[in-house]
Write a structure and sequence with these properties.
There is one protein chain. 32% of the residues lie in helices and 17% in strands. The chain is α/β, with parallel strands linked by helices and 217 residues long. The protein has a single domain, classed as 3-Layer(aba) Sandwich (Rossmann fold), CATH 3.40.50.360. Strands 1, 2, 3, 4, 5 and 6 form a six-stranded mixed sheet that branches. This is NADPH-dependent FMN reductase-like domain-containing protein. InterPro entries: Flavoprotein-like_sf, FMN_Rdtase-like_dom.
Length: 217
């Protein structure tokens, strides 16, 4: 891919993931990690470099709506890592039919993007993609996708066609995605389409990103 900032220079697309599980690393396996890993593997098929997964429960992210809440807040460094990538894989479990609380916390911190625009009104997320990887034991995937994409798009992220993949188990059932003997064929197909669309659109935006609108003085 040719960089839009440095014409003639080949650059590699990079993706990073957020895992908004409530479980810190080491406590027990995460179904959200399993779904994120499926997306990671498919993105690699499109020559997208993987920059790792940020497990939010492992970090001290303070409540607030600025990019730095001070006094030990780890969000500024996590923000830097996220914005260094071209594609954000936003993984979240469903709790009580909604996005997890860590997912909502990160979206609230990204609200600061709206006041961090450049001279053409573009937020720090402009020209970057976000996709969703959602798991849960009850219905709610469509609602979580809608809530997540509205918030991400509002602060500048671009959502590709077919930008969400999810799995939800049978209602009143305790089976987790991580415990399935094999990944359902429909999930595999959805992940493959998501990765293909995201990589394609990220390359297009890398070559010719949004122009923005000149801001009035």
């Amino acid at each position: 891919m040719i960089s839009s900032l440095f014409p003639g220079v080949l650059v590699t697309l990079k993706a990073i993931a957020i895992n908004a599980t409530l479980k810190p690393t080491g406590k027990e396996p995460s179904s959200t990690d399993k779904m994120i890993d499926l997306v990671r593997d498919q993105l690699k098929e499109h020559e997208v470099e993987w920059a790792g997964t940020i497990r939010l429960a492992d970090h001290r992210i303070k409540w607030g709506v600025s990019s730095d809440e001070g006094d030990g807040d780890e969000w500024p460094e996590l923000r830097r890592r996220i914005l260094a990538a071209d594609i954000l894989v936003f993984g979240t479990p469903i709790w009580m039919g909604q996005l997890s609380s860590p997912a909502k916390l990160v979206l609230e911190r990204m609200d600061a993007f709206l006041s961090e625009t450049d001279d053409r009104g573009r937020t720090p997320a402009s020209g970057k993609l976000a996709v969703a990887a959602i798991v849960g034991n009850e219905d709610g995937a469509h609602r979580c996708t809608a809530d997540l994409f509205q918030a991400l798009n509002d602060v500048g992220w671009t959502i590709p066609a077919g930008g969400a993949t999810y799995w939800v188990g049978e209602a009143m059932n305790k089976k987790d995605f991580k415990d399935l003997p094999e990944v359902p064929e429909q999930v595999t197909a959805t992940v493959a389409a998501l990765a293909s669309n995201a990589a394609h659109l990220a390359k297009l935006l890398g070559n010719d990103t949004y122009k923005g609108v000149e801001q009035k003085a």
